[in-house]
Amino acid sequence: xxxTERQTTLNDxxxxxxxxxxxxxxxxxxxxxVATSTRDRVLEAVRHYDYVLNVHARALIHAQSGILGVILxxxxxxxxxEVARGVQSVTAQTDLLAVICNTGSDPDQELKYLNLLxxxxxxxxxxxxxGSEHPRIQGELVRHAEGLxxxxxxxxxxxxxxxxxxxxxxxxxxxxxxxxxxxxVHLARLGHRRILYLAGPxxxxxxxxxxxxxxxxxxxxxxxxxDVTVRAGDLSxxxxxxxxxxALSEGLDFTAVLASNxxxxxxxxxxxxxAGIGVPDQVSVVGIDDIPIAADVxxxxxxxRLPMEEMGAAAAKLAVQERMPGxxxxxxxxxxxxxxxAPARTD
Amino acid sequence: xxxTERQTTLNDxxxxxxxxxxxxxxxxxxxxxVATSTRDRVLEAVRHYDYVLNVHARALIHAQSGILGVILxxxxxxxxxEVARGVQSVTAQTDLLAVICNTGSDPDQELKYLNLLxxxxxxxxxxxxxGSEHPRIQGELVRHAEGLxxxxxxxxxxxxxxxxxxxxxxxxxxxxxxxxxxxxVHLARLGHRRILYLAGPxxxxxxxxxxxxxxxxxxxxxxxxxDVTVRAGDLSxxxxxxxxxxALSEGLDFTAVLASNxxxxxxxxxxxxxAGIGVPDQVSVVGIDDIPIAADVxxxxxxxRLPMEEMGAAAAKLAVQERMPGxxxxxxxxxxxxxxxAPARTD
DNA sequence: GTCGTCTTAGAAAGGCCTTTCTTGAAAAAA
DNA sequence: TTTTTTCAAGAAAGGCCTTTCTAAGACGAC
Lengths: 347, 347
Hints:
The structure is a homodimer. Chain A is α/β, with parallel strands linked by helices. Helices cover 44% and strands 17% of the residues of chain A. Chain A is built from twelve helices and twelve strands. Chain A is elongated and about 90 Å long. The first copy, chain A, binds a DNA duplex through residues 7, 9-11, 19-26, 29, 32-35, 38, 53-54, 56-63.
């Protein structure tokens, strides 16, 4: 182990092994014949210095960095962490380094990360989950998609629609609209007519799609628009709880809560329990996502399963294997009936 | 928007603006006076090409990449995602890109990522949570810590002890030993004498520390060693459930379950509920960590709070601000009494 | 009008690796 | 033995940016 002032370089290794830098490079990359004796001397020198290659020098030549960017709202939200897991299940088999970036749902932070990743010549970038519908943001996204394409990388939209006019990006679709539709139909079948819908933040692609699904299904099932109350939260457990507490304190009349994600549904469960309202005897609760914990709360949450891990894996495959604009559909959403929804009381 | 075959470079921008590359660099870095009219022309050209700087070329000069590596077992485990959030709360205020790498608890994967990050000339790397106690692995860790130090970066051990003989690394301590001690003392005070302890995987720093804490406290409280049954799981919810199901089917006699993390404790709750055993009336359950969901399961989980987010933030600060070997202690652990533990039945 | 001082910009080297093009030597073929 | 082929290794350019050193011009001061 030799301590040098500057970094150990390939040249250092070369001179210790008594060969040219080219030879060291070839040993390390293994794409060119090198005599065994030479190789051994080189490897000895590599070990001696504990030499590690400098990706930056290499990236300068190949214009590739081995980085796969994953931009999402918050790793600590199980929805996103499941997707991230799906991504990593694919990248773990490659030399790619998956870089997970938390935006905290801030579209500007999203753009900042996109720029940063572009700066790092990321081989691909996956944008997970909801996005802003603001035209400025969408425009910037298109710009970045094109920029990425120009540097031979791919931007993949996972679980959000492609901004209008993008041809340079990939997409993994998930049926947000169908998910809430399924949930609402289920509730309607159980006889619920007065529904509290817990929506996500406004001007957000997923919020819009899920709300439209819920409202569309309600209409089909002849539930009057005024009988479904829509309240907007921020998709956190706490916000679900607060929204329901508010509704309760206002004396709002509802027999079911349809939350646009499981975290808020779990918050709703907490609020109802605290208020002494039985679930599902008095009020039914349905979520969306089917995050792992949904099965373990009490009562176990009835929800609509989104194929989170599969979405992540599909996006990663699109990003790293195909490297081509195109789209894939994740497996269909699926109603998971557990204990939190039951027939409406008929009193 | 001009589509070029090769990437747009600083030279392209320079010639469009009619200046030298040096000037463009100076405009972009803003660390040298440039006349306003020149700057404007340069910025116009930058916008025209949608030019983004190449980090690799820059990293070649500065030997820094702006990357902070975070190596952890699994982002979808709330413990780790909370720590990750803590890290990102610090990096979000900088130009640093936090890179989260999932090892799936595989020590070799951990080393692989460490090497990869070294290759990328990461400015710092944080190793989160339990590590292998295997001497080979520990030795490799020391080697990487020194390698990182030599390239001006820092390796930080967050929530795991420094391998013996490391001087080139940072550390954020967390009191694993004290956590289980607290939990066990609590159980003992409630009168429990026959305890099922759900441990983590063997040969793992955290498993060892937590087990020692639990056993030490049991001894102090005069609980016979043979009255605490230790079963090893993999820290997943599912494994907690299975371990308790097994114990139950074997007719093991216990009045309390002490799980070495909350996820396993939640699994235990599920198993007990399925077996029709009342918690906490018949059996008490205590966890460790205090992950967010712990408050929302039924019964709400009594647990020992580990300052996860603070640990992440402390590690990030050590890594990016101080850039010096040294250690910090996270805030102390704390017993959170909720509903899953009650006095032992005296029958 | 000349000299000195700022201010602003350019030239060129340097940072680390890969790869194409060459070359030298050894092995195989004639 | 001579010629051709094969194998292994080196020389050097190139990739993109930063920064030191140098210089041109503008402006004030004397």
